[in-house]
């Protein structure tokens, strides 16, 4: 039986999903959390049960070794070579990677070389890839880039209005992220609409801890809210999203705790967004509890969060010159009825109307009224299946070599 692993390494986590291919059957999935920190944990889920244990995990290489141990321990595989493919989510592919690629040593070096575009993620992605190359040298190893789907953006959208030199010599431009998710939900939306993707204009809202909005015309990304790095765009769990860059030198000059531009960027990446404004948590569920208890900072953080979502979605109605559908996905987009309601009601002028009885927890599919000019859909994202499918494509190609 052919088995494929889809791997998503974060800075301190490694999520995995084991598939039976080509059936796309999920055999098991899991996550290693708090890698490199105290009280690291492994969770393995299969047959409706979750098995969690606390275990020291120093780095991603060790997480990969432990993952293989877990698969054997839980009889999910008998031997390593049953895994014939491993697909890795890589956050930044720069201008070099416009689609998924077979991993070679050169590709691995190139992924490391563009780490400045995703300093939290690319080194972790590369560490995961390297560990698997050593452990499963015969498996087909594929890198799937978060930025690839956005390489169809026109220059007018992806260039920053600064001197050309900085694009030509330093590759400073908008790259976007969450591409696999935006691509997946836009394809799924076309199935719901029962129309060819090529005929649809869609706005996709991936709202999780990280969040980005995309404008998709005929299946191609033509604009997206994240920028040079995933710090751009809407407000997020711990990220500020869009800011006036003059705040950076101002803070360095005025706050003795912030000494370098990197200190400020770290502040914007890790201590800002919902966490920074609410002073409660970066997690939407915690925020909403505090908001409902009347906590002023939590109320403000929630209002700012919805405000930024509305502004970006409204922008993309302009970019697309109208849209057929707005798609909500990821942790908050899929589960948070109130965020969806507040965003859509605040944009009713664009021809969207929510159907309250459909806008409930756990809903999948349309949540707008039959007369709503723009359809509003909730579609659970599945980045892992796209990764597994891309591995499958390369397995077929390499079989002919
Ligand atoms: P990421 O993959 O970027 O870490 P997720 O897509 O898992 O993030 O989304 C995490 C966010 O989703 C958190 O803010 C969490 O509070 C929120 N979330 C998850 N479930 C719910 C829910 N039932 N109601 C509201 N928010 C939720």
Provide an overview of this structure:
This protein has 401 residues and is α/β, with parallel strands linked by helices. It has two domains: 168 residues, ATPase, nucleotide binding domain (Nucleotidyltransferase, domain 5); 185 residues, ATPase, nucleotide binding domain (Nucleotidyltransferase, domain 5), CATH 3.30.420.40. Helix content is 37%, strand content 20%. It has 14 helices and 14 strands. It has an eight-stranded mixed beta sheet, sandwiched between helices. A six-stranded mixed beta sheet has the order 11-10-9-12-14-13, sandwiched between helices. α10 crosses α11 and α11 crosses α13. 43% of the residues are buried. The model has no long low-confidence stretch (mean pLDDT 95). Bound molecules: adenosine-5'-diphosphate. Adenosine-5'-diphosphate binds next to α10 and α12.
Care to give the gist of this entry?
Belongs to the acetokinase family. The protein is α/β, with parallel strands linked by helices and 401 residues long.
């Amino acid at each position: 039986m052919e088995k494929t692993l889809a791997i998503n390494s974060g800075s301190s986590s490694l999520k995995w999903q084991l598939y039976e291919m080509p059936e796309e059957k999920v055999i098991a999935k899991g996550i290693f959390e708090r890698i490199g920190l105290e009280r690291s944990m492994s969770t393995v889920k299969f047959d409706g049960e979750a098995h969690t244990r606390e275990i020291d995990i120093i780095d991603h290489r060790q997480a990969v070794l432990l993952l293989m141990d877990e698969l054997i321990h839980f009889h999910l595989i008998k031997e390593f070579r049953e895994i014939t493919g491993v697909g890795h989510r890589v956050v930044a592919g720069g201008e070099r990677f416009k689609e998924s690629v077979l991993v070679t040593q050169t590709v691995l070096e190139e992924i490391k070389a563009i780490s400045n575009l995703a300093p939290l993620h690319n080194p972790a992605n590369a560490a995961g890839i390297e560990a698997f190359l050593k452990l499963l040298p015969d498996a087909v190893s594929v890198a799937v880039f978060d930025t690839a789907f956005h390489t169809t953006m026109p220059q007018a959208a992806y260039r920053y209005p600064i001197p050309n030199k900085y694009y030509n010599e330093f590759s400073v431009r908008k790259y976007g992220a969450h591409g696999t998710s935006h691509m997946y939900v836009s394809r799924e939306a076309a199935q719901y609409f029962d129309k060819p993707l090529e005929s649809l204009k869609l706005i996709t809202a991936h709202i999780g801890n990280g969040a980005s909005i995309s404008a998709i015309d005929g299946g191609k990304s033509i604009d997206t809210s994240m920028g040079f790095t995933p710090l751009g765009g809407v407000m997020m769990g711990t990220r500020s999203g869009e800011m006036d860059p003059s705040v950076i030198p101002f803070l360095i000059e005025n706050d003795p705790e912030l000494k370098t531009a990197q200190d400020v960027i770290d502040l914007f990446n890790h201590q800002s967004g919902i966490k920074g404004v609410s002073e409660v948590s970066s997690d939407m569920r915690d925020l909403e509890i505090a908001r409902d208890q009347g906590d002023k900072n939590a109320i403000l953080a929630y209002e700012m969060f919805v405000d930024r979502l509305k502004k970006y979605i409204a922008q993309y109605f302009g970019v697309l010159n109208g849209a057929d559908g707005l798609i909500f996905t990821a942790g908050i987009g899929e589960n948070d009825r109130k965020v969806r309601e507040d965003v859509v009601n605040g944009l009713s002028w664009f021809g969207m109307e929510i159907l309250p009885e459909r806008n409930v927890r756990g809903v999948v599919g349309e949540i707008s009224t039959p007369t709503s000019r723009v359809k509003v859909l909730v579609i659970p994202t599945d980045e892992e299946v796209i990764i597994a499918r891309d591995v499958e494509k390369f397995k077929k190609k390499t079989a002919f070599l």
